[in-house]
Amino acid sequence: MFELGKLEYYLLVINAIGVLVYLINMLLYRHTVNGQIDVIVTIVSLLGGSAGMLLMILLFDRKAVKENMMSRVFIICIFIIQIIILLIYKGHHAEHFTLAFWKFFVERRILLIYLGIMNLVTFIVFAIDKANACAHRSRIRIVTLLGLSFAGGSVGGLIAIYLLHHKTQKDYFTVGMPMIIIMHVVVLFYVMNM
């Protein structure tokens, strides 16, 4: 039988709080103009409640709109980083840690090629969206741009934002892209040290 320690009890409680806080925030978004509690959502997710919040998004708040995009990007990035921290804490890692990123990529050229292609594609898609915005044509969905970034194209997306001066007023890009990059670095660090 599996015994729960203090950490597991803490995670259960903080994620139950995360579910409740996200539910309240979701209802406030739907029924008020300025009643959101995004600061509390941020604090609770940083304290470990991101899994509960992600569960609420998947079950009850699937519709992505501009108003909730930043919190979604933040919660997903924090959730993935927290999973990796938990795995490291529980001892699921190599005996010695390494930061030899280049050696890792040289040994896995297909991954390096994949990331290169994803970043190029993401940059091109951002450029197309910028051209469409200037010509007042149909735009590429935010979810598509962020999805490409999550799939490995975050560096290409960040370069496009600042090189093309596109989406620089949107926090889910200007703050979200660096967060996605940090998440990618943490994931790569963990994979290198499994």
Structure description:
By secondary structure, the protein is mostly helical. It has a domain at 96-194. Helix content is 77%, strand content 0%. Helix 5 crosses helix 6 and helix 6 (142-163) packs across helix 8 (176-192). The radius of gyration is 19 Å and the shape is flat. The mean pLDDT is 91.
Would you summarize the structure shown here?
The chain is an all-alpha fold and 194 residues long. It is built from eight helices and no strands. The chain has a domain at 96-194.
Alpha-beta content class: mainly alpha
Taken in chain order, the helices and strands follow as: HHHHHHHH
Name the overall outline: flat
What's the mean pLDDT score?
Answer: 91
Tell me about the largest β-sheet: none
InterPro entries: DUF1294
Transmembrane segments: 7-28, 40-60, 72-89, 109-128, 140-163, 175-192
Keywords: Membrane, Transmembrane, Transmembrane helix
Organism: Eubacterium ramulus
Descriptors:
194 residues, mainly alpha, flat
Task: Give the arrangement of secondary structure elements.
Layout: H1 6-31, H2 38-60, H3 66-89, H4 101-107, H5 109-134, H6 142-163, H7 171-174, H8 176-192
Helix pairs in contact: 1-2, 2-3, 3-8, 5-6, 6-8
